[in-house]
Design brief:
The chain has 289 residues and is an alpha/beta fold. The chain has one domain: Rossmann fold, CATH 3.40.50. It contains twelve helices and ten strands. It has a seven-stranded parallel sheet with strand order 3-2-1-7-8-9-10, with helices on both faces. A three-stranded antiparallel sheet has the order 5-4-6, covered by helices on one side. Helix 11 links the parallel strand 8 and strand 9. The N and C termini lie close together (10 Å).
């Protein structure tokens, strides 16, 4: 049986972990990455250089780079001087983004430079800002959205940013599309731009939402698993399967969607890549048999 073509959509540490999980079971692996970050090093580089946020793409690049000095260097964060707070990988991508108009070319070049296994694509060809309708009004910017709570609807500016044709092609050819885990609004849905959602809807792939292990402070305070699924659906993504850790309460969730598996080690507060890989492999085998 051929290895599946997998597309993982999201951002932040969650997407990086998902890529680590999928890299050994995928025949082809593509990351579709949010470029909306406006905090920390990414925010500084966005403001000072006018480029798209490189941080989440750098995390993905490191996740797919073989262990060793190059991978360590990508995540090396300077502690002193004018570079304090910047990971070296962010500066590398910033230099590439200043020297090439097409961010797809930038990421393909970066992947080749470091010997990464897989392809990393920005969800948009241009800069994107997040906006959220909340109980206290409209909030703008990823950092502000992550701290706001009571989020009713997520928007982006521009309203329908240009999605690379390479993203649409990868999603159209995929056997499995994985969303999550990660911050619901500021990572997962931040990458699920309108054009990305249209491509997912048109795809024949198995769409898997990997549920978070619990609510996230401020952003999803008080959310149940059912609330997470409802938010994904309300924003135009219809999963075929929701993978949830055995520790989660699924009483209020759609029982026809949810499949529970052990996705973390005892005492851990994070998903275990090998356990997630095994769960996804089981799903793929079930679909193909």
């Amino acid at each position: 049986m051929s290895a599946p073509r997998i597309v993982a959509i999201g951002g932040g540490h969650g997407l990086a972990m998902s890529l680590e999980s999928m890299r050994d079971i995928a025949g082809e692996l593509t990351a579709v990455v949010s470029v909306a970050d406006d905090g920390g090093s990414s925010g500084r580089l966005r403001r000072e250089l006018g480029i798209m946020a490189p941080g989440d793409m750098r995390r993905c690049l490191a996740a797919l780079t073989p262990p060793g000095i190059v991978r360590d260097a990508l995540d090396h964060r300077f502690e002193d001087g004018t570079l304090a707070g910047h990971p070296a990988g962010n500066l590398l991508l910033a230099a590439l983004l200043e020297n090439a108009e097409d961010p797809v070319v930038v990421m393909d070049t970066a992947v080749a430079m470091v010997g990464a296994r897989g392809r990393i694509l920005p969800a948009s060809r241009s800069r994107v800002d997040l906006l959220a309708d909340t109980g206290r009004g409209v909030v703008r910017g990823q950092v502000a959205v992550s701290r706001s709570g009571d989020i009713q609807r997520l928007h982006v500016s521009p309203v329908d940013p240009p999605v690379p044709l390479e993203v649409e092609a990868a999603i159209g050819a995929a056997d499995v599309i994985i969303l999550g885990p990660g911050s619901l609004y500021t990572s997962v849905l931040a990458a699920a731009l309108p054009g990305v959602r249209r491509a997912v809807e048109a795809s024949d792939a198995l769409v898997v939402y990997v549920a978070n292990l619990g609510p996230e402070t401020a952003e999803t305070d008080g959310y149940s698993l059912g609330d997470h699924i409802a938010a994904i659906r309300a924003h135009g993504v219809e999963p075929d399967v929701v993978l949830a850790d055995v520790s989660l309460d699924v009483a209020e969730a759609d029982s026809q969607l949810v499949q529970q598996r052990a996705l973390r080690l005892s005492g851990s507060m994070a998903h275990e890549p090998e356990l997630l890989a095994a769960a996804v492999s089981e799903l793929v085998t079930g679909v193909r048999t």
